[in-house]
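Customer ticket, subject: "Can you confirm the structure for MFS transporter?"

Message body: Hello, I'm evaluating your service for our small team and ran a test protein. I'd like someone to confirm that this is what the system normally returns, since I don't have a reference to compare against.
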Amino acid sequence: MRNRWAILAILFFVRLTIAFQFQSVAAVAPLLETTFGVGLADIGILIGLYFTPGVVLALPGGAIGRTLGDRPTTIAALLLMTAGSLVMAATDVWGWQLAGRLASGAGGVLLTVQLTKMCTDWFTGKEIATAMAIFVNSWPAGVGISLLVLPSIGITYGAGTVFLAAAALTAIGIVLIMLYQPPPGATASATGSARLDPLALLALIVAGAIWGLYNIGFAMVFSFGPSLLAERGWSIAAAGSAISVVMWLSVISVPAGGYLADRFKRPFILAVAASLVVAALLAWLTRSDAVITILVLIGLIGGHPAGPIMSLAARVLAPETRAIGMGVFYTIFYAAMMLGPAVAGRLAKSAGTAAAALDLGALTVLACPPLMWLFERIVSVRHRRTQS
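Agent reply: Thanks for trying us out. I re-ran your input and got the following:
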């Protein structure tokens, strides 16, 4: 298979399995609280635990992918994700839930790093912002599907069946990834030096921080949004359906943002403007009864920065540094995503309301524009030095 858009479709679905599995906890959080006798702080830890392996595995994950190859690495990652979900489905002990979540997250880390590198291989210099926006769109699609189907499954059949559904989806991903082929010349181009120059490394750290902070803000909506609405008297199913509006509208706004960035060549302005609006909407959500209106606006606007942000790393990476560079990018991203939900859960517990978590999300999104400016400055300095 050599059509890059067909390849992108495969990568889209396989990455969707990560989002679906990640959201399997938050989608039925009130049910898990009842089943295991835990609180919001514990749920926040379980959500954030999915990203914990990324802090130590993302960087070596890039090296593993470079050594073993794209397809073997992705298959191994999917098998690990499947095993983690099966552990969570088979036990009613909270400690084993944590262990299964860690195993799933480890697989998710390896898969995320490798899939991003594979997408970059196929689209660098060819509609990269559009392709990355579509690729990233697999996340809201997977979260949206989970919010629609998993609460009903959990209520009807129990929490274990929710995790079985996640395992089944990752198994389908294994079948699909067998169809993947690398782009012509990718193997040869990746055999050079994999060392990153200092400014490229710094730029990747900043880019990873931007993506992590923005995702913390977005994750607060679907991680703690259902609990916020449940506090206001919504049923679990109704709360999940309402929050899923954000995800489904993001399916439109994410690729739209990538297209606009490629079309008008103003990704920085687009990402900054959208981030400021999303921060304001998150703060408004906790202080207003116009829930559906705000969720619709977040969905329509919140996806626009995704493509431009995800294309940042490609600007400082050559083919031979992509695997290790994506490892650096995702190490920072996973560190942020590990801490974000856990801190948010603690804040929600202290404040006695999930609204505190969404307020934290507003602040993290607000931090992105100045970091985007810093990234542009680093890239500009690096370009001048390489030209001199």
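A couple of notes from the result: The chain has 18 helices and no strands. Residues 246 and 299 are 4 Å apart (CA to CA). Feel free to reply with more questions.
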